[in-house]
Amino acid sequence: MNRKQPNIILIIICTGLGLFILTCSVSKGFVRNLFDQPTPYLLKISIFPDSLNIPADNPMTVEGIELGRYLFYDGRLSGNKDKKKLMSCASCHKQEHSFECGIDNPLYKGGRPHGLSGKETPHVMLPLINLAWINEGYLWNGKISNSNNTLGDEKLGVPAEPIYNYKNIESLVWMSIVSPYEIAGNIEKTVNTIQNIPLYPPMFKKAFGSDTVTIERIDKAIAQFIRSLVSCNSRFDRFMDGKAELTTSEMNGLTLFTTERGDCFHCHGSPALPLWTTNLFMNNAKDIDFNEIGDRFSVTHNPRDRGKYRVPTLRNIELTAPYMHDGRFKTLEEVLEFYNSGLKRSPYVDPLMINMNHGGMHLTNKDLIDLKAFLLTLTDSTFITNPQYSNPLPWNKYFIK
Ligand code: HEC
Ligand code: HEC
After folding, report:
1. Which atom from ligand 2 is nearest to the alpha carbon of 309?
2. Which of 74, 80, 93, when mutated, tests ligand 1's pocket best, judged by the most ligand atoms within 8 Å of its CB?
3. How deeply is 153 buried, as exposed, middle or buried, from its count of CB atoms within 10 A (0-12, 13-18, 19+)?
């Protein structure tokens, strides 16, 4: 027997052990860092357009979305730990109402929310649903858009710095924190509070590679979570996919919607644009005088934009009463009655309101029932029950209703 063999075996064992030890120690540094890279999150929905509104400096990642979800639901985002002063995005944006507050919310009577200071928001809510596909501007009047170059707002104590711009969902995060109508907070206090909650620094490290909390990272994480809120599984979507049926009444409603008899498709999309909105700004003939301060005109200063608001999505419309920017209609029946016989003539009405000349659609009661039946097929119950969108924190602990 060759006497050298055991030595070779020993060397192999030692080398193996050495490598093993080496691997273990490396795993604390290099290898772990390798795995600490946030995991890219691909947002691609085949039935929606490809043109996503995602800033180049905030790509979506699994870890960023998860952090954003915690912050979205955490009342300590207000910079307070006192239970009476907790407020988060989810205080108003509720999953069961497609992330609006709901007309039946005891805290916000009639669906008009008010912020921590008690001030009512100037407009009623918009849902947080498929927002990554909005390129025309956010809010009812489109004030927040990529072409906007306004910085910060000294009146609100927000410095004029590039991160405090009014361009995208990221800006809506800090705006909601400082807005006197919403969280009525203070950026510095919010950042300090979040930094000192032990749960968060490790989550910031996973999402952004550093456990330092900054307002920029808070903005980015919550914006990522909001972009992940996708609805594409209503009964109508399943019908288009050959996986569900529509009743005769719903089919008739669809025909009315997509032809000039009902004339909804010009502004609210169609089976070919199943976001169920064009996201354009329109005047839909509700009024004669236009002197409201928050309309599209207030952004563009173009006189032709008086009384224009962004066309809202009709996805989950069943869950998002009250309707229109001022919540003037409490039910879908009231909305349909308006489009049927309540149109008001003014020089500002959009030419796409084809039925303007007759003051409305003038459908029979049965047709109105069918149109409503069709609208209800756009409800996506999987969206409002998706656990990935729900509150990850213990209920009632860090969160007011
Ligand atoms: C007090 C209630 C309230 C709170 C709290 C609140 N929001 Fe909102 N949110 C609203 C209202 C009302 C609107 C519509 C405002 C408008 O267009 O004038 C809105 C609109 C938005 C929009 C624009 C949606 C669109 O389609 O253009 C985004 C995004 C948004 N909120 C994010 C947030 C985030 C993020 C937070 C938490 C940091 C938050 N909101 C906290 C009431 C609230
Ligand atoms: C010329 C464009 C246009 C046409 C045509 C049109 N709408 Fe609208 N719709 C709008 C605009 C703009 C708003 C928001 C107006 C506001 O808030 O002041 C709106 C709001 C609504 C709302 C309330 C949405 C919400 O979240 O508050 C419903 C429901 C609605 N439309 C349904 C319909 C139906 C059904 C038809 C067809 C009978 C129709 N619309 C035709 C432009 C249009």
Report:
1. 12
2. 93
3. middle
For ligand 1, the distance from its centroid to the CA atom of residue 382, given in whole angstroms, is: 22
What domains sit in the chain, N to C, each tagged with a CATH number?
62-231+384-389 (1.10.760.10), 235-379 (1.10.760.10)
List pLDDT tens digits, range 340-382: 999 999 999 999 999 998 899 999 999 999 999 999 999 999 9
Task: Take residue 137 and report the two structure tokens written for it.
Answer: 């501007």
Residue type at position 381: S
Read off the amino acid at residue 73: Y
Give the residue whose CA is nearest to atom 37 of ligand 1. 89
Q: Is 218 in the pocket of ligand 1 (CB under 6 A)?
A: no
Phi-psi category of residue 98: left, alpha or beta, with phi > 0 → left and psi -120 to 50 → alpha: left
- For residue 268 and ligand 2, the question of a CB distance below 6 A is answered with yes
Reduced to 3 states, what is the DSSP secondary structure of residue 83?
A: helix
265 CA distance to ligand 2 middle (Å): 10
Kindly report the CA angle at 38 between 219 and 227, in degrees rounded to 5? 40
3-state secondary structure 335-350: HHHHHHHCCCCCCCCC
pLDDT of residue 32: 40
